[in-house]
Structures are given as C-alpha cells and as structure tokens.
Write a structure and sequence with these properties.
The complex is a heterodimer. By secondary structure, chain A is α+β, with helices and mostly antiparallel strands. Chain A has a seven-stranded mixed sheet, with helices on both faces. In chain A, strands 13-21-20-19-14 form a five-stranded mixed sheet, sandwiched between helices. Chain A is globular and about 85 Å long. Chain B is of the alpha+beta class. The chains are: A alpha+beta, B alpha+beta.
Chain lengths: 753, 151
C-alpha cells in the first residue's frame, strides 16, 4: 500500500506510482504522497483545508472537491468514481464538486481505456473517502472529548448519538487537518447495507450542461489570440511531401500561413502523420485553404496495399498451420479419425471509430512550456508525446482534459495533440487543430481487419470431438514495432485463447499479418472478430447437430468450473486470476437467464423472422444476448427486440450500466450492418457518413432489454462487453430468419440492408 | 455586410458569405453549443432553427442565413429549461452528449410541428441525427415524455 503523509499541511506531493504490487485488484495504482515538491497546478482539492488524498479535499464551507482522474467520454466514469468516494465519506452528493484532473502521474493510471476505470479505482476511491471520514470523526471526537468509536457520520455531519451532538464536515475541516492521515488498515469501510450511492448510482454530474450546450468538449475549447489549423496529411501511411505550392492557399481570405509538419520516423506509434498545416482565422478558412494546396507526395511502400488482395492473403495464411497459442489434447489425431469435417471462414474488415467529435486539440506553447486542452483518453500519453516532439521535460507539458465527444479508443492515441503543440510552437500563438470528419475517418487507428478459419468434427450429441481455430490479423504492436506481425497475448486473449468450451481436443493458432495502416483499439477490440467467429461457428455446429442453440451452447461451455490457463499466455485483462477467475458457471448463468428473459423457444416466429443467441466474456464481464430480427423480401433487416443479461460483478452505477449496454447494441449494429473501411493503393476509400454509415434511429431495436445480475464479486468492465455478443447473436438471428449464413461482415455483402 | 439575428440579438457579419453558419456561430460568436460532426449535413450535430425550422448549420451559407432569425441550443430556454431539455434529463438520454444539442433542436422542431408524433414519425424526424454512443432508444422515450409535458 502507499506511503501517505498529510498534504493538507501544505506538504505537496510529487508523482510516485506503485506500479507493481500484490494489490487486491491487480493493476491498481495508488498514488504515493511525498513531501517537498510543489505542483505545477494545484487543484481545488489540493487547496482545500482538509486534503487527505490527491483525490479529494473539503473546504470549511462543506464543499467536497473530488477529482475526476479518468476521462469522460460517455460512460459516466467521471460521476461514478466520485460517487464511490462520496459514499465512503458519507457526503451529501449535492455538496460535491467534481474537478477534472490534469495529466499527472500522481493520480496513478489515467489511461481511460480497456473498461477498467471502476475495477481499477474502486478500492482507491473507497479508501480516499474513508480516510477523510476517519479524520473528521477524530476531530469531532476530540472536540467532544468522547471516544471516536462512539461517533458516527450522517450525510455530511459527524454525530455523537448518545449526547445528540452533531458537527458539519465543513466546520470540522480545520481540526481534522491537524490529525495524521490514517493507515489503510485503520480504516473501517462501510458495510454494504450502509451504502448510499454504490449500487444505486446517479445520473451524470454534467447532465444539465450536456442538454444545454454548455458542456465544453475539445472542439469547444478557446483561448484569446488563438488561431485555427487544418492539416493535409499524406494520403498513404508513411508518405512524405515531395514538394508543395501554397500560392493559392495564401490567397484565401483568413488564411495566415502554411507550415510543413515532419513525417513520422517509423514506427508510427503516436507521432503526427506529417503533412502541410494551414493556419487561419477560423476553421472554415483553414479548410478552404487546404483545398487550394498543391502537394506532390511520395507515398512510400504502403501504396501497394489493397483491401481485396489483403483479404485473400489473410485467408490463405489462415488455411495453413500457424503459431499455436493454446492446445488441449491432440486435435490432429482426432481429425485423423475421420468423420464429417465442418469448416468456415469468417472475416471482419477494418473499422473506424467515427466518434461524433472528430479529433481536435488546442495547444499553447509559451515560455518553454506547452499547455493543452484536449479530448484525450490518456493525458499522460499526451505529456509523453508532446515532451518528445518538442524536446521539453514531461513536467512542462500541462494537459487539461476536456469532455470527449466520444472516444471508443481513438482518443487514447494523441497524434493530434502533438500536431497542435508543434504548430503552436512554430506560430507563437495558441493553435487549435481541427480534423474534419474526412480526416477522422481516413487517418484513424483502425480496428484490425481479421480472418478466422474454424474447423471441427462432431461426435455424440453433435459435440465437437476436435476443434481448430486460426485467426490472422495485423496486430496493434505494429504501431510500436514495424516488424510485429503476430497477435500479442493481450489481444489474443480477447475471446480467442480464452474460448470457454469444454472440449477434449482444442487447438488455437494465430498467423502473421503485416500492417499497412495504423491499427488501434476500438470498443471491444479483438473481441469483435473473435467473438463473431466463435459464436457464429457454434451456431453453425448446433444447426449441423440438429440441436437447440441454447442447449448446445451450454453443452459446449460445459459444467461450472474455473478455466485453467496454465501453459497459456493469458493476461486476464491485467487482472489477477485469483480475484477475477474465468468462471464458466457465470457464463452459463447469463446464458440461461437470457434464454428465459427472451422467451427462447417459447415465442413463435413468423416467416422471415428469427432469433439468435451468443455468450461472451470480455473485460472480465459475462454477457449473453438474444437478438430477434425480421427480414423482408428486399433483404431489409429490422430488429424488433434485443435481450441482454450482464454479470459485471458489483455494479456501482446500474443506470449508467444499462445505458452502456443499450449503446453497445447500437454500436454493434453499426459494425454488423455497415462497418467497413477499405483501402485502394494504400488510400482509404471512405471519408464521411455517406460511405462509412453508422446506425441511425431507424436501425435500432424497438425494444432493448438489459438485465443486470446481482453480484458481490469485484466490479468488472461495462463500456465494451456488450458489443461482441450482440454482433454474433444478430448474425445468428439472420440465419434463423433467412437460412443465409453471415460469415463476412458487414451484412451488406450478402445483399442485406 | 450580412445582418442576422442570433438568439434574439442582431449581428453583422463582414466575412465570406459562403462561410457556413456553423463556423460563424462557433468560431466568430463563440456559441459552441452547436457541434461540428460531419460538415456535409449528414449527422445533424450542428442543427439550429432558422425561423423555427430545423436546419443543418454546417451546410447553410451565411449568405442564405442573411436576414433570418437563428436560434441555437443556447437560445431555447424560456424561464428555465425547455420541456425537451427537461425530458432529456428525466430519461437520462446523454452519454458523451456531443450530438445532443442537435438532437434536442431537431426534437423541438418536430414537437412544434406535431404535438403528439407516432413512433414512426419520431424515427423519421430524427433519422438525420446520428448518435454514435447509441442513445436512440432513450431519445424516442424522451420525445414521448416531452410531448406529454408540452400537451
């Protein structure tokens, strides 16, 4: 546990992170408070009279400042984590003010990605709240000359019930600040029965600002004297400017100048792509100036990249033996015994994030320091890249985090933030770099294109006697190593090496694929293509075996047990397998529950109508989904109903959780119906919502029913786990309705709409 | 010089008449409630009212906005929140919230034209407004709640 000292005595702290450690929740980084150093920016929590933790402070007027150290992109974590602090503090939520933290390692991990905000910070938030509550009780007990054990708290007051005395938190701050910060083992956390907010949840702290247009996103950040920039990037990844002519650009009203940005040095990582920036009075003028640029490009080797040929390459690789990443029994011997072989190729194309807010960044370089206001999922990564690009210490990069107009993983890669910082340094004024929708789609970090080859033979009851699965996709590590061609354990684990089936002979392989575009995380990541292949192939086999899909799925999952990953590189989403074991019983439970909730096998389905099921665990959360579709003679697919059952362990904010699973259905609808990015000669073909359509209100289900399983097991992921099972269940439903098997996404390839 | 009225205030604009209204509102007037999402009228994040009609401000040139009355999300409150905003809060619609100004402006225009829209009419009126977080189910519900409140 961390070393703690009382910072309310003006002893400030520097960052020190306990990175490793046998902490209960695996990768939980709690800050270590150290004396002596001053901070570049003190938060209101830091300045408060009582400041027992970097995460909170209490003013004498009773205002409780709670730091939101994670980025808010719509999952409500900016509200939900402070609710946990407020609960342990026994604070009145109406007197809580949330302040968004700048990027600073003293807050621990701020990388808001991988659906881990709640699970990684739940304990730290409880500890922060309980610490302040402990000190307030100490202060009141001393004033009243009674043992602290006789005191209690009641919504922003310390009370001594036997003498009927009470004192407000605000008035106790001065006295409380004189007490040493208690050791974690001295703290007594509230019992579940006393929780006010945990498990009950709350709407977003920002709700009113969000419906009045007052919420400030990166796109809305403004500074006096700021200019706007728009960047013409190399059309092919790794391309360079050979020469350019900006004469016509400089004639555009409002355009000030053009500035070349250097191409990146491979590997791309989070470096700017390079190109020519147009600086102007406003966004529009910058866009117009860009259209008048005359640039000659050297496209480089990725010019040979064509999606159709690449798809064939991936498929061919997947038809030959690849690297074995998990093996059970002897699959070859089992196949050699003969019997009908079932084979299928599944394919998912590149996918773009297309957050409603295109990426955008505002930077001000002054006096050797860079200050940024950006919609980022990772302000500390912004500090890293800006520090490298400008050659200044990381401490001289101040990264303010605005609200994010969607993120989905794109805004964890701060190439655009580095662009703004570089340009501000060159221009000598604050610069806001505005990406157009076309830039956002053409220069994304795409979810990997993937080909999956599946093969099985069936025995008694149609249960597989041998099962082989191979996936081939350009891996995310290619961002950091141009020679990386194999999937790494943290992405192979995603619904692939952790296939939960109880099979005697199982072999899992992964093949090589070279990246020609930037590959990155997108909501659910590799679970999208892995879950699609496994859950749809399972449905194929159930039909082949003449079995009910739910019974068959349960049969394959097998009896309740904890999966043994010995001999498998299985990071378990950076959580310990002791705290978060892979329990097939929980997957069975959500499967059985969703069958019941959806009326599986009980409802009649007319011609052209059908249901499909899928079950999947990712980001430590177990989800099963049933989708009902109606397909008319024109191939138009409607979704009358979706039922989802979620076991995410302890759910702190049920309302926000339901919203995330409703949204996951819509996100999955976009992937399955229309999601496809392709390249011709290295240039991305799509550019805006006319050729990269996403789900609209007319595409979404009439009914989306989300059921949350009551659980006291540690909290797990919420934002991502809903997407993969929806996609597979949707495709399985289309088969049930039409007899057409969807093996290539999106479904438009099969003539559906 | 182009004269327009924005949220009840007369404004003059001497810049490029081709400049879309969206960028005038955002970059010149600093009214950032109307959002940039696509720039080509495909997503609805920039929706404002022009003489009470929902319009995509990203494809409405300043020359065409001349002499018109523009209302943005910043200008719809009357003695507190508009019933549509209240309904949005009651149903807890927003996730990231970026598209919601446009959704709300579109919904207000719908309810001004049609007091009690059917489900199909709601979908048809709102189909030009994209929400990538996927709050559509709640948008439908909030419009019904607002319709009831405004009846």
């Amino acid at each position: 546990m961390s070393t703690i000292e009382n910072v309310s005595r003006r002893k400030f702290l520097t960052g020190g992170i306990i990175a490793a450690g046998a902490l209960v929740l695996g990768v939980r980084y709690t800050p270590r408070l150290l004396a002596g150093a001053t901070l570049p920016h003190n938060s209101n929590a830091d300045r408060a009279k009582l400041n027992p933790s970097v995460y909170l402070g209490i003013d004498p007027d009773g205002t409780v400042w709670i730091m939101a150290t994670r980025s808010e992109m719509g999952t409500t974590s900016r509200t939900t984590l402070p609710l946990v602090v407020a609960d342990e503090l026994d604070a009145d939520w109406n007197r809580v003010k949330i302040e968004q933290a700048i990027g600073d390692k003293r807050y621990g991990d701020q990388f808001t990605d991988g659906s881990h905000s709640i699970r990684s910070f739940y304990d730290a938030m409880r500890e922060a709240g309980a610490t302040a509550r402990f000190m307030l009780i100490q202060a009141a007990a001393k004033q009243w000359e009674v043992p602290p054990a006789e005191c209690e708290t009641a919504l922003h007051f310390v009370v001594h019930p036997s003498t009927n005395r009470k004192s407000g938190y605000g008035e106790l701050t001065k006295a409380a600040a004189k007490f040493p910060i208690p050791k974690p083992e001295e703290l007594k956390l509230k019992p579940k029965s006393a929780w006010r907010y945990i498990g009950k949840g709350h709407t977003s702290y920002d709700l009113e600002a969000l419906v009045t247009g007052k919420a400030i996103y990166g796109m809305d950040a403004r500074l006096d004297g700021m200019v706007y920039a728009s960047v013409e990037h190399p059309p092919v990844l790794g391309g360079k400017v050979k020469s350019f002519d900006d004469k016509e650009t400089l004639k555009v009203a409002g355009v000030h100048q053009t500035i070349p940005i250097d191409p990146y040095q491979p590997p791309p990582a989070f470096q700017p792509l390079g190109g020519i920036a147009v600086i102007a009075d406003n966004s529009w003028a910058a866009f117009q100036g860009r259209k008048k640029l005359n640039i000659s490009w050297d496209n480089g080797p990725n010019e040979s990249y064509n999606s159709d040929a690449y798809k064939n390459e991936l498929r061919e690789t997947s038809h030959n033996p690849c690297k074995v990443v998990r093996n059970v029994g002897d699959t070859d011997a089992a196949f050699a015994k003969g019997g009908k072989v079932y084979e299928a190729d599944y394919y998912v194309p590149l996918l773009a994030h297309a957050s409603m807010e295109p990426v955008v960044a505002l930077a001000d370089f002054k006096d050797g320091k860079a200050t940024l206001w950006v919609p980022t999922q990772s302000p500390q990564t912004v500090q890293d890249i800006v520090s490298k690009e400008l050659g200044i210490p990381k401490e001289d990069v101040i990264c303010h985090v605005t609200l994010l107009g969607g993120g989905f993983g794109r805004k964890s890669k701060p190439d655009y933030c580095a662009e703004a910082a570089i340009l501000s340094k060159k221009v000598g004024r604050p610069v806001k770099v505005v990406w157009t929708r076309e830039d956002d789609i053409k220069f994304d970090y795409y979810n990997a294109v993937a080909s999956m080859y599946m093969k099985a033979t069936l025995g008694q009851n149609g249960k597989p006697t041998a099962w082989l699965q191979r996936s081939v996709f350009p891996p995310i590590p290619s961002l950091f190593d141009v020679n990386a061609v194999y999937g790494d354990p943290s992405h192979l684990q995603q619904g692939w090496t952790d296939i939960p089936y109880d099979l005697p002979n199982l072999r899992i392989e992964n093949g090589p694929a070279k990246a020609h575009v930037r590959i990155g995380w997108l909501r659910s990541v590799a679970n999208i293509y892995h879950g699609f292949a496994i859950q749809c192939f399972t449905d194929e086999l159930a039909h082949a075996a003449g079995r009910d899909q739910v019974d068959y799925l349960l049969d394959l999952i097998g009896p309740p047990r904890t999966i043994d990953f010995s001999g498998v590189q299985y990071p378990n989403y950076n959580a310990s397998l002791e705290t978060y074991p892979w329990e097939t019983g929980r997957l069975r439970n959500v499967t059985q529950m969703v069958a019941e909730k959806s009326g599986w096998g009980k409802r009649k389905h007319a011609k052209g109508s059908g249901v499909g099921i899928a079950a999947h665990r990712c980001f430590l959360t177990y989800v099963a989904t049933v989708v009902e579709v109606e397909v008319n003679d024109q191939g138009e697919v409607r979704i009358p109903r979706v039922d989802t059952v979620v076991d995410a362990g302890l759910v702190v904010n049920p309302e926000a959780t339901r919203a995330q699973f409703e949204g996951a259905v819509v996100f999955g609808t976009s992937v399955a119906r229309t999601g496809e990015i392709t390249a011709t000669n290295g240039v991305i073909n799509q550019s805006n919502f006319q050729d990269y359509p996403v789900a609209r209100i007319t595409d979404v289900p009439d009914q989306t029913n989300v059921t949350i399983v009551e659980s006291d097991t540690p909290p797990a992921g919420i934002g991502e786990p809903g997407v993969p099972p929806f996609i597979a269940a949707f495709c399985n439903a289309i088969f049930a309705a039409t007899g057409k098997r969807v093996r290539d996404l999106p479904i438009t390839k099969l003539g559906f709409a | 010089m182009i004269q327009i009225k924005v949220n009840g205030t007369e404004q003059s604009f001497g810049g490029e008449p081709e400049m879309p209204l969206l960028w005038y509102l955002r970059d010149v007037l600093g009214l950032t409630g109307s959002k940039f999402g696509c720039g080509v009228g495909l997503c609805g994040a920039c929706t404002v009212h022009v003489n009470g009609q929902a319009k995509r401000s990203c494809v409405t040139a300043m020359r065409d906005a001349a002499g018109q009355e523009i209302t943005t999300v910043e200008g719809i409150e009357m003695n507190g929140l508009h019933p549509v905003q209240k309904a949005w809060m009651q149903v807890n619609v927003p996730q990231c919230g970026y598209c919601q100004s446009g959704q709300i402006m579109q919904a207000i225009a719908l309810l001004n034209a049609k007091k009690n829209p059917t489900g199909k009419e709601i979908d048809e009126a709102m189909t030009g407004n994209i929400c990538r977080c996927g709050t559509y189910q709640r948008i439908r519900m909030a419009i019904r709640v607002a319709a009831e409140a405004m009846a």
